[in-house]
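User: Sequence recovery, please. Input:
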């Protein structure tokens, strides 16, 4: 695993692991259900992840969207590849919706809807809540064929 993955709390925040990719809970929730999708290699640019990682990416994003649709009932989903501070290839996965959703006892509104996500509106999950969410997501994660 690379330093970017470690910074986002791996292995504590690990929800699902695939060849070349990990899905982590984003402990700073912009909207309910925010995740990190991170490439496990050392690449610092998307074209450098390699063909095998690109093939798996389609499966991982299908699984992410299926699971988040069941849990959060998002209306749209954003994959932000910011990589300004954390250099290794990763995406911030942000479910988008009108109104509010609940996650670990927190009520989270999509304050940017229907425009770009409000990156300043993150709610930091306390450790016990983050552990509870990770456990739920890990145990109920569905892998599509």
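Assistant: Recovered sequence (145 residues):
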């Amino acid at each position: 695993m690379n330093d970017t993955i470690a910074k986002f709390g791996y292995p504590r925040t690990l929800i699902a692991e695939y060849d070349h990719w990990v899905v982590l809970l984003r402990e700073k929730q912009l909207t309910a259900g925010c995740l990190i999708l991170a490439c496990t290699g050392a690449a610092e640019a998307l074209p450098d992840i390699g063909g095998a990682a690109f093939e798996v990416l389609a499966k991982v994003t299908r699984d992410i969207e299926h699971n988040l649709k069941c849990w959060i009932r998002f209306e749209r989903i954003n994959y932000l590849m910011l990589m300004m501070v954390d250099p290794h290839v990763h995406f911030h996965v942000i479910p988008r919706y009108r109104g509010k959703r609940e996650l670990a006892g927190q009520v989270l509104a999509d304050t940017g809807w229907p425009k770009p996500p409000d990156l300043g509106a993150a709610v930091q999950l306390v450790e016990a809540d983050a552990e509870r969410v990770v456990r739920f997501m890990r145990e109920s994660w569905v892998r599509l064929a």
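Helices lie at 3-7, 51-72, 127-140.
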